[in-house]
Write a structure and sequence with these properties.
Shape: globular
Mean pLDDT: 84
CATH topology of the largest domain: Rossmann fold
Structural class: alpha/beta
Largest sheet: 5 strands, parallel
Low-confidence stretches: 1-6
């Protein structure tokens, strides 16, 4: 009597594997029992299974995209000090984090300001918000990416390397001005800017304003062409504030251990749990007074 249901269950498991529906494979038994107990119509049972499968696919996709993004750990919008950079509109940043209006058009975002002003933090936080909304992002130091592209050029694989970067809706080039004026480096950087122009977006952080980019591109014509392509469809934030890094240095020195290198789902969960605890403590202290 019990053999037939077991055979059916095994066959169903194989079919769900073949259809690549792993979530339904694991939950259908519990949902079937609940549906029988509560008298669900077949349409409700099927819809519940489909909703859970889609939700789990979204979760796994975001997890994969977060792993490939190489976003520095701990850089979220929740912990960015907007009050320390009053020239930056939080509402505008939150609108950019939706991604729809500018990433679809291949527009750019450029953050200027002195070292320690929070440019890299804001860039990483925007990147994280975009990943959580389904966009693909890669965060990299400009010098590191340029070196990799130079290697690809020497191996006659530059076109392939550029094509692989196309899968990212947003490429974050951190510390843009910290590359040498070597002709090969500036040439490959210019090719990257040109390849993504009006197709894929760039987010650039830089200490120097455009007027000093002759330190990056030794050829004035190349400098002008690069700037022209970057600003044609761009939002520009000038973050000329006191070093945020210097203000928080003491707090980091008293922190517990070495921070994680990259943002992962587990690291992100820990950060947000700590933020919730801090908010609860602040609320308790306020209520006591």
């Amino acid at each position: 009597m019990n053999a037939t249901p077991m055979i059916d269950a095994q066959r169903l498991s194989l079919m769900l594997n073949e259809l690549r529906l792993p979530t339904i494979k694991h939950i259908w038994g519990d949902f079937a029992a609940q549906a029988d107990k509560e008298g669900w119509p077949a349409s409700r049972f099927l819809a519940a299974l489909a909703e859970h499968e889609l939700a789990e696919r979204d979760r796994r996709r975001i997890e994969r995209h977060l792993a490939e993004a190489h976003l520095p750990a701990g850089k979220t919008l929740d912990c960015f000090a907007f009050d320390a950079v009053p020239m930056i509109s939080k509402a505008q940043v939150m609108a950019l984090c939706a991604g729809d209006g500018w990433l679809e058009q291949g527009a750019n975002l450029i953050l200027f300001g002195p070292p320690g002003g929070g440019k890299s933090h804001l860039a990483a936080a925007i990147g994280l918000a975009l990943v959580e909304r389904g966009w693909r992002v890669l965060f990299t130091r400009t010098s590191d990416l340029v070196q990799r592209l130079q290697v690809a050029r020497r191996e006659l694989a530059l076109e392939s390397a550029m094509a692989k970067l196309d899968k990212y809706h947003l490429l974050v080039l951190d510390d843009f001005a910290y590359i040498s004026r070597d002709q090969a480096e500036t040439s490959v950087l210019f090719e990257l800017i040109s390849a993504r122009y009006e197709r894929r977006s760039l987010l650039i952080t830089a200490n120097q304003p455009f007027g000093e980019w002759n330190r990056v591109f030794p050829d004035p014509a190349m400098t002008l062409a690069a700037v022209d392509r970057l600003v044609h469809h761009a939002t520009i934030f000038e973050m000329n504030v006191e070093s945020y890094r210097r203000r928080t240095a003491q707090a980091r020195r008293t922190g517990a251990g070495r921070p994680a290198a990259y943002t992962t789902p587990k690291v992100l969960e820990t950060i947000r749990d700590n933020q919730d605890e801090n908010e609860e403590l602040a609320s308790d202290n306020l209520n006591r007074h």
